[in-house]
Amino acid sequence: MQKLPPISLVGVPTDIGAGHRGASMGPEALRVAGIGEALAARGLDVVDRGNLNGPFNPWQPPVDGYRHLPAVVAWNRTVMQAVGTELAHGRVPILLGGDHCLAIGSITAVARHCREQGKRLTVLWLDAHADFNTSTVTPSGNIHGMPVACLCGFGPHELTELGGSAPTLTPDRIRQIGIRSVDAGEKKLVHDVGLDIYDMRYIDEVGMRRVMEEALLNLGADDHLHVSFDIDFLDPAIAPGVGTTIPGGPTYREAQLCMEMIADSGRLGSLDIMELNPALDVRNQTALLTVDLVESLFGKSTLMRD
Ligand SMILES: [Mn+2]
C-alpha cells in the first residue's frame, strides 16, 4: 500500500466571512462524525491540533463592500501560520472549517510552501460557486464569496498580500468543479481571467470521470495538489448542512468518483473542508457524509479492486 504522509487536523471555528451563522460549529461536528478515527483506521498517522482562536463574529453590515474585513484578516493570518507550520513539518494539513474565506490563509501558506520546495501547485476548488466576487460586484459583501478572487490578486490588499506579495496564485493553477451559481458581475470577471471551470452542465454532458481526468491531467512528482472542498459542492439532497445550498450538485456516486480519482493521482498534499453548518444539518448527516468522502480522498476504495 502507498505510504501516505502524516496528517494534522486543524479546526477553525468561525463563520466570520459567511452570510449565515453556524459554520463556526463545523470543526466539532466533523470530530463528532469521527473524522480523526476514520483516517486513523486507514492506517494513517493523524494528530488533531485542536482549534485555532480568533475574533468572535460581531455580525455587522459590510463596510466599504467588505463584511468584517479586519476580523477576516486576523483569522486568515492565524490559519496561514498554522498551515505553514504543518507543511514545514512534512505533514498534510486538513483544515476543518469554518467558512470558505479561510481558504485565503490556507492556500497562501500552501503556495509559499510550494515556492520554497520547488513544487508546482494545483488547486482543485470543489464548490457550487466560483467564489470570485469583489467588493464592486458582490451583492452581499460576505468575504466567503471572494477567496478565489483574493488569491488571484483581486481584493483588499490586506488579503491579496497576506503572504507578502500578490497574486498568490495565477488563475491557470486553479480548476473549479461543480460550479452552478455565479453572479452576473462575477461571471464577467471569471471569463476575463480565464478561470478553468468544470461546471455542472459540463459534468452532465461528459460525466465526472472525464472531468476529473481533465482536471488532474499532467500531474507529476513535482506537483502539489490542494483540494478546497466547499460542502455546498454536493447536491443538497444528500448534504443539507450548508448555508448556501444550490440544487443540481454532484450525487453521492459522482462525489465518490471525484474523491477516488483525486486519491488515485497520489498528489494530494493539503485539504480544506469548508462551510459545514451544523445549525442547518439534519442529525449530523452532512458531517457523516463528508467523513465518508474524505476517507475516499485518502484512498479508501469502495470498488472490488486494489
Ligand atoms: Mn465556497
Short description:
Helix content is 36%, strand content 16%. The protein is an alpha/beta fold and 306 residues long.
Describe this structure in words.
With 306 residues, the chain is α/β, with parallel strands linked by helices. The protein has a single domain, classed as Arginase, Chain A (3-Layer(aba) Sandwich). The chain has eleven helices and eight strands. The chain has helices at 26-32, 35-40, 69-88, 103-117, 147-151, 157-160, 184-193, 200-206, 208-215, 252-265, 285-297, and strands spanning 7-12, 46-51, 92-97, 120-126, 174-179, 196-199, 223-230, 268-274. An eight-stranded parallel β-sheet has the order 2-1-3-8-7-4-5-6, sandwiched between helices. α7 links the parallel β5 and β6 (196-199). α1 crosses α11. The chain is globular, with a radius of gyration of 17 Å. The site of manganese (II) ion has 5 residues, from loops.
Secondary structure topology:
Elements: E1 7-12, H1 26-32, H2 35-40, E2 46-51, H3 69-88, E3 92-97, H4 103-117, E4 120-126, H5 147-151, H6 157-160, E5 174-179, H7 184-193, E6 196-199, H8 200-206, H9 208-215, E7 223-230, H10 252-265, E8 268-274, H11 285-297
Parallel strand pairs: 1-2, 1-3, 3-8, 4-5, 4-7, 5-6, 7-8
Helix pairs in contact: 1-11, 3-4, 8-9, 9-10, 10-11
The structure holds manganese (II) ion.
Residues 100, 127, 129, 131, 230 line the site of manganese (II) ion.
Protein name: Arginase
Catalytic activity: L-arginine + H2O = urea + L-ornithine
Family: Belongs to the arginase family.
